[in-house]
Amino acid sequence: MSLADWLIIDRVPEELAPAGRTLAKVFQQDPAHLARRSMIRLRKWWRGGWLDFPQVVHLETTNTCNLRCVMCPYPAMVERRIRPQGFMSEDLFRGLVRECAAAGTVEKMALMGLGEPFLHPRLIEMSRVAKRAGIRHVFTSTNGTTVNEETAARIVLESGFDEICFSVDGANSATYEGVRSRGAYEAVVRNVERMFRMRARWGRSRPHFVVQLLLMRETAGEVERFVSRWRPWLRLGDRMSIRDVDRFGGLVEDRRVRDPHAGRVRAPCKQLWRDAAVSWDGKVTVCCKDVYWRLSVADATKQSLREIWRSAAWNRLRDLHREGRYEALPICRNCSEWHT
Ligand code: SF4
Predict the structure, then answer these.
(1) How many degrees, rounded to 5, is the angle at CA 141 between CA 63 and CA 318?
(2) C-alpha Rg value of the chain to the nearest Å
(3) Which residue, 40, 35, 36, is CA-closest to 52?
């Protein structure tokens, strides 16, 4: 792949020198977002690595899904009835958005969790509420199966989404449908292409689009084809994401083709000092990979997010990480995606 290709792909090439990788990452960012993010990080550094509110907030609008993907913990959640399914209420959502907007530390708000976000009938309104409240970067990730003509127009004209990621895991029907059970490759490709056309038709620059291929045994041979398939569609601010598939702390079979952390010494995971994830019914966990909410520390229908973020229960988990006792936490124990 050429350098031009790498500049629009999320995963920077390991063969680049560290300075080249930093440069590639900078090119991949929206300058306004990068500037604001840098200010918040400077503030965090100034305060000794601690802010009194999260920087990234994940709101699980729903945990229902229309697909049964092989690399996702969702099918097991349904079969074993691990969590009740539902949709986030408007009251809970608006309360959380108000709190996040007032805090001034939130760099990103992700309207997503263990489910297909666009199955929530009010997702577009939710994004608009978050944007109007002043959240700088609102994004979601979708399987693209339900984004029809009408939804596409509303996304572009009404939602205010800054970024939407489309999961298109494969460069042909056989691979895609083998991985994303119940999905139809041609239909999804049509939906994603329509999104690009719709944005161009209305002359909008937002949302930025990310077309994603999860790198795993089944898709590893299709990276080049995927890149040439989607490259012509991308405009300024769009990206392709070629990302190693998650293991969700060992909840799913390991389908990775490489271990990005191989040979690295484990360190406390910055996720616990940066992110918060709220389930559709208000449970708060410390990490978006904890999709069964096993590390749930509190309930956002009973306490504010700020109180929860500073609570003894959450600090206990942080202490376990500081002490290197990762095995004490059921998800972190087998996690291979820890952040430093
Ligand atoms: S170690 Fe893994 S599971 Fe634990 S907080 Fe970090 S990313 Fe999440």
Answers:
(1) 70
(2) 19
(3) 40
